[in-house]
Write a structure and sequence with these properties.
Blueprint: H1 3-9, E1 22-26, E2 29-33, E3 40-41, E4 46-55, E5 58-64, E6 75-78, H2 85-97, E7 100-112, E8 117-127, E9 136-142, H3 153-164
Parallel strand pairs: 4-8
Antiparallel strand pairs: 1-2, 2-3, 4-5, 4-6, 5-9, 7-8
The structure holds zinc ion (ZN).
Length: 177
């Protein structure tokens, strides 16, 4: 069972009238919906911002406290209401690393179907002094030519950024976060 379908089953009652939701075809797909038509669980993917952070000529990779050893990835986070994606990724950078975003450039949008998310990835030129939040355990600064992307959304963003710079793309054999 995928994470997305588990998520669907977490919704049981209509938020308007508290009737039990039923499965019905809405918009050409099976969805959980209120029998009185108040509410449908559309289950659309949620946008996630990712930052490929360049700091002093190197790429900043961080290990989340919840991840296994040697698992490093980009800075990621959800958008807040009322902010642009560029503001959001700069805010996440500040919260998680204390670094300040300078130039921010879009790398691209990437699927993360397993978590029902859409990754919007940016390259960020960052300055300041690194102070990790409690969410992050440790970090590495890697020379761009030594980066090894992984075969999920944020890794594909890294690969596209490397390609755009004319650098070789040498994927890791194992998936990462
Ligand atoms: Zn209802």
């Amino acid at each position: 069972m995928t994470a997305a379908s588990e998520e669907v089953h977490a919704y049981r009652y209509c938020p308007v009238c508290a009737a039990s939701l039923v499965t019905a075809i809405v918009g050409e797909r099976d969805r959980l919906t209120c029998p009185a038509g108040h509410w449908t669980h559309w289950d659309n993917p949620l946008p996630v911002l990712a930052g490929l952070v360049e700091y002093a000529g190197k790429i900043f990779l961080a290990r989340n406290a919840a991840w296994p050893e040697k698992t490093y990835s980009l800075i990621t986070g959800f958008m807040e209401r009322g902010e642009t994606p560029e503001q959001g990724v700069a805010r996440e950078l500040k919260e998680e690393t204390n670094l300040d975003a300078g130039e921010i450039g879009l790398i691209g949008a990437y699927e993360f179907i397993r978590k029902n998310e859409l990754i919007i990835a940016y390259h960020i030129q960052a300055t300041g002094e690194i102070k990790l939040s409690e969410e992050l355990l440790e970090y590495r600064l890697v020379a761009p030519e030594k980066l090894r992307p992984w075969r999920t959304g944020t890794g594909y963003a890294m690969a596209d950024w490397l390609r755009a710079r004319g650098l070789p793309v040498d994927f890791l054999d194992w998936p990462s976060a």
